[in-house]
């Protein structure tokens, strides 16, 4: 499953990058998925980061 961050919803709390630094990072003040890690959506810690995202900006797709 693919993971992404909706830039229109993210407000840059940085929580995702702190929780899962191997997948997320704060770039220009917004959460983003690191290049090459877009397929990490099935990883439990990524799902957890989505649950904890204060703006529910982390998206999943097939
Ligand atoms: S946890 Fe959510 S609001 Fe915070 S930087 Fe990540 S995607 Fe954005």
UniProtKB/TrEMBL annotation:
KW Electron transport (keyword) present: yes
GO MF term set: 3 iron, 4 sulfur cluster binding; electron transfer activity; iron ion binding
Domain of life according to the entry: Bacteria
SUPFAM superfamilies reported in the protein's UniProt record: 4Fe-4S ferredoxins
UniProt keywords, alphabetically: 3Fe-4S, Electron transport, Iron, Iron-sulfur, Metal-binding, Transport
CC cofactor: [3Fe-4S] cluster
UniProt xrefs under InterPro entries: 3Fe4S_ferredoxin (IPR001080), Fe-S_cluster_ET (IPR051269)
Function: Ferredoxins are iron-sulfur proteins that transfer electrons in a wide variety of metabolic reactions.
Name of the protein this chain belongs to: Ferredoxin
Organism (species): Streptomyces sp. R35
UniProt lineage: Bacteria, Bacillati, Actinomycetota, Actinomycetes, Kitasatosporales
């Amino acid at each position: 499953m693919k993971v992404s961050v909706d830039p229109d919803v993210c407000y840059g709390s940085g929580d995702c990058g702190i929780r899962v630094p191997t997948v997320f990072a704060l770039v220009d003040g917004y959460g983003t998925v690191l290049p090459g890690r877009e397929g990490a959506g099935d990883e439990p810690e990524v799902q957890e980061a989505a649950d904890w995202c204060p703006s529910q900006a982390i998206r999943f797709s097939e």
